[in-house]
Design a protein that fits this description.
alpha+beta; 5-stranded antiparallel sheet; about 35% helix; globular
Length: about 300
């Protein structure tokens, strides 16, 4: 159990405990979509082998939001609607107007919904009750918002705010590639993206490429800012820092145990290691970016 992406939030209010969180999530579980529903969402157990909705290691709690969606491709809807529109045109002797066409499409969706396939996905998050942080494993802003909305609705008095730093990631990354000292616990790797600030947003990307200081400095002098930078923390975890403070492509470096334990024990062990290491990584990154901005 290792998150591959981090989107961090500050817990701003809500005195939750492990038991109260378990109870709150168990009252808002994922239900199958009703015949006429396009989507259903609710809490699911992080592991099928477990019964609890919260997997806990001390004050580190893992939770998962399940979303079930019905799949109705636009092409299928349009094909069925077109057939119905043709039939109605033949019956009434003229083409349906805009409102009638819209009504036909809506009726087509209603007709097809009971026969639609469903797709289910999980979004995981980890609550660090020591640091008062919520960390969501996603790169999607919409999935993160969906998760936050569901959690706030499920847990009474719980509020969140995006974690922000006093120095923007883009400014810091640009300084580091311009020659400013990087905190010694971090090293720069070989992936980078620089983007122009004008309307065209000219972009330069380096992939698996040694970053030449003179070359990147030239792009920065030309008005580009760094929007993505591959880094390694403490020789343990590599990742890509984005200008919105997301950490993506997280990869542990030789710190995981060999799979000699049972699946359940390995899951618990990985979660314990992950939360310990990533919690400190996030703290060090916040410090490198001037500290947390809570204004």
């Amino acid at each position: 159990m290792w998150f591959r992406n981090l989107q961090a939030y500050r817990i701003t209010s809500g005195n939750i405990t492990l038991n109260s969180l378990e109870e709150a999530l168990s009252q808002h579980t994922l239900q199958q979509c009703m015949q006429m529903e396009m989507q259903s969402r609710g809490w699911v157990v992080p592991r099928e082998e477990q019964q609890n909705f919260v997997h806990a290691y001390g004050q580190q709690w893992l939770i998962a939001l399940g979303v079930e969606k019905k799949l109705l491709p636009a092409g299928v809807i349009n094909q069925h609607a077109k057939t119905r529109i043709t039939q109605i045109e033949q019956m009434q002797g003229y083409k349906p107007g805009k409102k009638q066409t819209r009504d036909i499409k809506e009726a087509t969706i209603i007709e097809l919904l009971p026969r639609a396939f469903t797709q289910c996905h999980k979004t995981y998050a980890w609550i660090d009750a020591v640091k008062n942080r919520l960390i969501i494993d996603t790169t999607s802003a919409s999935k993160a918002e969906e998760f936050v909305e569901a959690l706030i609705k499920s847990v009474h008095g719980f509020t969140l705010a995006p974690l922000e730093t006093k120095i923007s990631p883009s400014s810091a990354m640009t300084r580091w590639l311009s020659g400013d000292d990087l905190p010694s616990i971090f090293t720069i790797d070989r992936d980078c993206e620089l983007q122009g600030m004008n309307d065209e947003k000219a972009t330069v990307k380096y992939t698996h490429h040694v970053l030449d200081a003179d070359e990147t400095a030239r792009h920065i002098r030309a008005g580009k800012k760094v929007t993505k930078l591959a880094m390694t923390w403490n020789s343990k975890i590599s990742f890509v820092l984005h200008d919105n403070l997301q950490l993506r492509r997280i990869a542990p470096q030789d710190i995981l145990k060999e799979p000699t334990e049972s699946t359940e024990e390995l899951f618990a062990s990985d979660f314990a290691i992950m939360t310990g290491e990533l919690s400190q990584l996030i703290t060090d990154m916040i410090d490198a970016l001037g500290g947390e901005d809570r204004d």
